[in-house]
Design brief:
By secondary structure, the chain is of the alpha/beta class. The protein has eleven helices and ten strands. The strands form three sheets. Strands 5-10-6-9-7-8 form a six-stranded mixed sheet, sandwiched between helices. The longest helix is centred in the N-terminal third of the chain and has 18 residues.
């Protein structure tokens, strides 16, 4: 091989290695993958200042980093809004995103690492003085315009609920707090949201005695670790093996109950799927 061809081959090899992980962050045997905490979404992530995030995802990342996987997950100093976080993973600026539900659009843009991190019930919330009981989608449809459901404007469940047909939906609330205030003001009869996330926000607002959680849940959705689509398959497999190991050791189940179940009243905790 000529000297010029040898240089070209070396450059191509280095380029392939650089694509498999962000350079300058690990040893020759350790790949470093980058992610960031998501603003909001507690208790997935809790922000206490730069580089002081906690929550379910922070604990999962720390647990993965303790395994001998040949990779390390690094957190950026600042948390990012979900939309920006998704854009940066999609573009390859970041490598991972924790934890989101599956949608058709997201399936085109990301790899959903298996197994799932946890399963979360989605429930209807109503005002405490409202005696309404809704145990199915058909029962909700039967309420007609008296069954107006609030959702966050960027809810991943909105397209699914729209596709069901016959539901009266209002998805203009900018965030969970805004929708809870709208619910209490009578600007909707229900608010549809993940159980533990809703309860956490209700407690932080001090309105848990003014709002009732309707059971049974209408859906249970898996939440996944998402990776950029061009992350090498071998690295995807390392992540998958790590999550499987955490599940087999019972760590995923313990972290799920720590962050999503510990603060729930007993009757609501029973609605969480058993890990």
């Amino acid at each position: 091989m000529s000297l010029g061809l040898a240089w070209l081959a070396a450059l191509l090899m280095l380029g392939g290695q650089a694509d498999s992980a962000h350079a300058g962050s690990g040893t020759a045997h350790t790949l470093t993958l980058r992610t960031a905490a998501e603003q909001g979404g507690a208790p997935k992530w809790l922000q206490h200042g730069p580089r002081t995030q906690s929550g379910f995802c922070a604990d999962v990342i720390a647990a993965l980093n303790r395994l001998d996987l040949g990779l390390r997950i690094e957190l950026l100093a600042e948390a990012l809004p979900q939309k920006r976080l998704m854009q940066q993973v999609k573009s390859g600026e970041l490598d991972l995103l924790c934890a989101l539900t599956r949608t058709e659009e997201r399936k085109q843009d990301f790899v959903f690492v298996q197994p799932e991190l946890y399963n979360m019930p989605y429930v209807l919330l109503a005002r405490a003085e409202d005696p309404v009981e809704v145990g199915s989608w058909d029962a909700l449809r039967a309420l007609g315009e008296q069954g107006l459901v609030l959702l966050n404007h960027d809810s991943s469940r909105l397209p699914l609920l729209q596709a069901m047909g016959g539901l009266h939906l209002h998805a203009r609330g900018l965030n969970t707090e805004a929708n809870l205030r709208m619910l209490l003001a009578g600007r909707g009869r229900f608010f549809y949201f993940p159980l533990s996330n809703a309860w956490y926000t209700m407690q932080s607002m001090g309105v848990q005695d003014r709002i009732r959680v309707l059971l049974p849940p209408l859906q249970v959705e898996p939440y996944h670790l998402l990776a950029r689509r061009n992350l090498p398959p071998a690295v995807q497999e390392q992540l998958s093996q790590g999550l499987q190991q955490l599940r087999q050791q019972g760590q995923l189940g313990r972290l799920t109950m720590k962050w999503f179940g510990a603060e729930l009243p007993a009757e609501l905790r029973q609605a969480l799927p058993q890990p």
